[in-house]
Amino acid sequence: MTINDYLDMEALDNILEQWAAATHMIAVVLDDEGNFLSNKLGFSRNNVEAFGESIEVDDVEVATVVGGPLDEDTDEEVVEAAAAILVAAIQNLLEAGYRKKKYEEAIASFNEEIAGAAALIKELAGKSQGLKKIENKQNILALNASIEAARAGEAGRGFTVVAHEFGKMAHESGVINDSIQKTLQKLDASIKSYDAE
């Protein structure tokens, strides 16, 4: 991310203009490559450069404030104090813009992750419905097997045990599937409530 991604140029120029009007000094802001970020306001390095202060954001030097008095007779302490105030104001502006941009990026990333999770929940819900269909078929097969075992009488006794176990397995898979569906519904509701905010 570069300084141009988060710098509020209008606010920067406003700070510089108000500071210049209040102090009768002039200053500009340069990026880390020495390019002007702010309005030059008649600035020339040949005639005004009493101070130059670096500005860091997130421990990276991103800009330099360069300036000085228009009147050569201005007291050096006054220049230093005015420069400190200006640098602090610009530092705060840049840090606020940087934090805001990072926050916006984090929110966008989080929203993408939530959308991905919602899509996975929808996919799992569809697969869960497929399991419900299989459970229903297993129950029908178990019932049919029990009916055929009863018709066979004594000869179908072993088949009755198999039919019973098959029905029990269908019931257990149905209980697990119901639990999965309830969990997916809770997750879906949670994601929808986040989206509503």
UniProtKB/TrEMBL annotation:
Thylakoid as UniProt keyword: no
Q: Name the InterPro entries on file.
A: Chemotax_Me-accpt_rcpt, MCP_chemotaxis, MCPsignal_dom
Q: Name one GO molecular function term.
A: transmembrane signaling receptor activity
Q: Which Pfam families match?
A: MCPsignal (PF00015)
Q: What is the lineage of its organism?
A: Bacteria, Bacillati, Bacillota, Clostridia, Lachnospirales
In the record, the note on similarity to other proteins reads:
Belongs to the methyl-accepting chemotaxis (MCP) protein family.
Q: Where is the Methyl-accepting transducer domain?
A: 131-197
Keywords, alphabetical: Chemotaxis, Transducer
Write down what this protein is called. Answer: Methyl-accepting transducer domain-containing protein
Which SUPFAM superfamilies does the entry mention?
A: Methyl-accepting chemotaxis protein (MCP) signaling domain
User: PANTHER family per the record?
Assistant: METHYL-ACCEPTING CHEMOTAXIS PROTEIN 3, PROTEIN ICFG
* Native species: Wujia chipingensis
Per the record, its GO cellular-component terms are: plasma membrane
Record-level GO BP terms:
chemotaxis; signal transduction
